[in-house]
TrEMBL record:
Entry-linked SUPFAM superfamilies: FMN-linked oxidoreductases
Record-annotated NADH:flavin oxidoreductase/NADH oxidase N-terminal domain positions: 3-340
CC cofactor: FMN
Listed InterPro entries: Aldolase_TIM, OxRdtase_FMN_N, YqjM-like
Protein's recorded name: Unannotated protein
Keywords in alphabetical order: Flavoprotein, FMN, NADP, Oxidoreductase
Source organism of the structure: freshwater metagenome
Keyword Isomerase appears in the UniProt entry: no
Keyword Repressor: no
Molecular function GO terms recorded: FMN binding; NADP binding; NADPH dehydrogenase activity
CDD domains in UniProt: OYE_YqiM_FMN
Organism classification: unclassified sequences, metagenomes, ecological metagenomes
Amino acid sequence: MAKLFEPIKIRDLEIRNRIFISPMCQYSCENQDGVVNEWHLVHLGSRATGGAGLIIAEATAVVPEGRITPWCTGIWNFEQVAAWGRVVEFIHSQGSAAAIQLAHAGRKASIYRDWSGKGSVPLEKGGWQTVSSGDVAFDGYADTRALSTEEVSELVSDWATAAKHSVIAGFDAIEIHAAHGYLLHQFLSPITNQRTDQYGGSLENRARLLLEIVTAIRAEIGQQMPIFIRFSGTDYKEDGWDIEQTIQVAKWCAEVGADLFDISSGGLITGVKIPSGPGYQVPLAEKVGESVGQPVGAVGQITEASQAEAILKAGTVDVILIGRAALRDPYWPLRAANELGVELEYWPSQYTRGKYPSTN
Ligand SMILES: Cc1cc2nc3c(=O)[nH]c(=O)nc-3n(C[C@H](O)[C@H](O)[C@H](O)COP(=O)(O)O)c2cc1C
């Protein structure tokens, strides 16, 4: 049996295979209200029909000002929860598990989606004042404002409420977005965190907000449901965030209830060289897998079934996240099963006549 199609159990959640769809923003809440619609249903629904083990819904803001763009999804109110519920129900009907990536974009919020403009959305056009660990803007974006100590503490309950809402919507797992230069990464990295209060300075202090959030979410959702964390394993910059700090903070997160670490990289600053190429972030995930003793996911230019299988067989990575390859082909998992010689029980009944090998 191919490892890629072995089920995996994390806390009480049983996942039918090790192919996770990576969270991918759709920027498609056309009413700019954070409420998912038919696009999200069809987009996420087709990847469930495509055979994924688990689908991670896009970076979803815990508060309105945490959206990357005005078109991003949210989960701070009940209209949003109800709309997510319909999407989750369909994902479940296809046998996939559903996770949601909870996020706050911090100083990288309030920008245009690619096809609507460039850079920050001005206040008079529906943009907003962004907040961050400090008051230095992201290169090319509008000014940001440092959160007060009290505001940082208050954010913890916003994340916990979003987690509660995620449970109500029916999600099976929560991923905390602590990567790609968004708010939690802005706190973790010494490059963007120059604070002098208890949320800045030492590694312990820079990790405090994330640890408080994991603790609060675990208290809110109970013991059955998994918590994943997406980290950038490095800022690719000397004296920045790196893999050793990632490993240490992942260990602390595991102690307060996190279960799986999804290892990406970069995104905090511009002007660094990212060594992209097939599987370029896998070594980062392997290092976390070797050192933390918890399940780990690898992501980034993993496009072939045999490539994914080899990464899992090598030993320290437990699941594979597929991003853009699944945008090109929502049926990536079904095709991968065929390529690896796996007979799937969960080929959609409606598509039986299309099953490999083709009979007509
Ligand atoms: C359209 C698009 C939207 C994305 N949105 C998110 C997101 O919401 N959250 C996140 O953590 N990563 C996001 N990413 C990054 C992907 O999850 C993934 O890590 C990255 O594309 C590398 O994997 P790949 O080579 O398989 O695409 C996005 C990528 C794309 C292409």
